[in-house]
Design a protein that fits this description.
By secondary structure, this protein is an alpha/beta fold. It is 39% helix and 20% strand.
């Protein structure tokens, strides 16, 4: 079919509304819910323009991209309405269309009104795969969409060069990591580091991360362990005319507590290196070491399980003698390997591994630790990288700890709150304050915060009341007998007037923030402060369980933020 004939076909598809969407689900594996669907446009089956690559390529060549984009949005919204779909509708948009002066302004809003879809339900995906001609105009166009109430996602993050710049300037609601970084991520330490850095940045910027292109259970499990729960890919659901409504239980996050601790486990420093079969001839293993001077050891595997490890110096020692080749060349490597290497599970904490090393005088700090997952070989970790990561964590914790109490400071507390908000899982924050503390501080001489993860309201209240009982039982140890006999302290108030202050009491305000209403740790802090004030209405100790899940006055966020 000639170019002019294809152009006519394209116009016909647009005018006769023959384009239709397929929907691929975006799933929150921690909660087991579908948060939305991405609309993927197709032409009629068997048509030369059935698939999007050729469809959009032709439209760009013949300057019909704007018309095609509007037709796609209309088709997606119409199907979304007809199927009575819930959650978000993710729409792919070529960024250059947004900068096109001929592109009709306000069309997306008109379509959303026509089909009764609220703008906040629609996520406009800006892909890095398209070369962006004018980033400034694009930025203004996106800000315009944000002001209208639409949500924004940067798609294919990592596929181009503009995504991080747009992210920093526009603060999108979502970023979608390119499939390249997800493929076999469980075997690539470099990909894991990249994704982990994106996740850390997203937590700081209050951006939700979606990973695309998940095709295997191993990829999904690795991403879940790293704390990423918004997932998309063939494993979770292929593009289909009708939406996915339920999430198979096999895709749900089995051990959600692992994710938040990933950075402090041995998995965070694992490298995937070449391994050999226990049946491999020793001469072949020698050749491997000879060809790669950087190898210090090789894991030896038998039926996916760890059989041992062969170290460079060991095999060189065996083959260095006059009869080394004659004696060992044809023997399997299992004959000369170390059958009892230091091996740990991937979820073992860095501190535990460090203890294992220090307790074992025979461990060579230049060698590798073998890491397993479900008793199957997973990778290796160098002791050097292990010690480096432990040092980083300790320095970071010390930097943000309170200098007097050595308890976690505001940075660490805020980070945990942000993580809990981003995971949208129930949690409670308890804000502790000491009643009548000023005179005690003046004579003897600190608010505390506790975060209860994965606990219900009753459990949080029980723990706080136990803290109050323990506090009241122990507090008298911190007073002189004369003050205990008096039942308090005589001291000057802030205006210099003599006042009698009772013994210290403990006021605790407990809140359960709503992640959809509390945008950051600032909102949680405001909510907790309000609860603490309620708790302090009593002179004695009291635990106040707040029923509000958002502060009375939420911060106003401008669309540019």
């Amino acid at each position: 079919m000639s170019g002019s004939e294809l152009t006519k076909e394209l116009l016909s598809l647009i005018q006769k509304k023959q384009l239709y969407p397929l929907f691929q689900p975006v799933i929150d594996t921690s909660r087991g819910i579908v948060i939305g669907h991405e609309a993927l446009i197709r032409g009629p089956k068997g048509h030369p323009l059935e698939f999007p690559d050729r469809l959009f390529s032709l439209a760009s060549q013949v300057q019909l991209l704007s018309e095609l984009e509007l037709a796609c949005r209309s088709a997606a919204m119409e199907a979304f309405q007809k199927n009575a779909m819930q959650g978000k509708l993710f729409l792919n948009v070529n960024p250059n269309v947004l900068q096109d002066d001929s592109h009709p302004h306000g069309s997306t809003l008109r379509l959303s009104q026509q089909f009764g879809i609220a703008p906040e339900q629609i996520v406009i995906e800006i892909s890095e795969r398209y070369p962006i001609e004018d980033t400034e105009n694009l930025k203004h166009a996106i800000i315009h969409y944000q002001k209208l109430g639409f949500m924004i996602a940067i798609d294919d993050l990592g596929a181009g060069y503009s995504g991080l710049k747009l992210w920093s300037e526009l603060r999108p609601d979502y970023v979608k990591i390119d499939r390249y970084f997800i493929h076999s991520i469980e075997t690539s330490s470099v990909k894991r580091e990249f994704v982990q850095s994106i996740l850390s940045l997203a937590t700081s910027l209050r951006t939700k991360v979606i990973v695309e292109g998940i095709e295997t259970p191993d990829e999904l499990e690795q991403l879940q362990a790293m704390g990423i729960n918004y997932c998309q890919g063939f494993l979770l659901g292929r593009p289909a005319p009708y939406p996915v409504l339920e999430v198979p239980s096999s895709l749900l996050l089995p051990h959600h507590h692992v994710a938040l601790n990933y950075q402090s486990t041995i998995a965070s420093v694992v490298d995937t290196i070449h391994c050999v079969s226990a049946r491999t001839r020793s001469s072949e293993v020698l050749d491997t070491f000879t060809q790669d001077k950087t190898l210090s050891s090789l894991p030896v595997i038998h039926e996916k399980k760890v059989a041992g490890i062969i170290r460079r110096e060991k095999i060189m020692e065996f083959f260095s003698g006059s009869y080394g080749h004659a004696l060992y060349a044809n023997k399997p490597v299992s004959y000369i390997m170390d059958e009892h290497p230091l091996s740990v599970d991937w979820q073992t904490s860095l501190e535990e591994v460090s203890q294992l090393i220090t307790d074992n005088d025979e461990v060579d700090i230049y060698q590798h630790i073998i890491v397993t997952k479900n008793d199957v070989y997973y990778g290796v970790a160098s002791i050097k990288n292990l010690l480096r990561r432990i040092t980083e964590l300790k320095v970071n914790n010390a930097r943000h700890a309170n200098p007097l109490t050595q308890l976690p400071g505001n940075v660490a507390i805020n980070q945990i709150i942000e993580e809990q908000l981003s995971r949208a899982r129930p949690f409670h924050v308890a804000y502790f304050d000491l009643n009548h503390f000023k005179p005690y501080n003046d004579i003897y001489g600190y608010d505390f915060v506790a975060i209860f993860k994965d606990t219900d309201k009753e459990q949080a209240e029980q723990q706080c009341n136990k803290i109050i009982r323990d506090f009241e039982q122990d507090i008298i140890r911190f007073y002189h007998q004369e003050h205990i006999n008096l039942g308090g302290i005589k001291a000057l108030s802030r205006n210099g007037t003599p006042v009698f202050y009772p013994l210290l009491g403990l006021a605790i305000g407990v809140v359960q923030p709503d992640p959809s209403e509390c945008l950051s740790h600032h909102d949680v802090a405001l909510l907790a402060s309000e609860a603490k004030k309620e708790a302090k209405q009593s002179d004695g100790s009291r635990c106040y369980m707040c029923h509000r899940q958002k502060p009375r006055r939420l911060r106003q966020i401008s669309p540019q933020q």
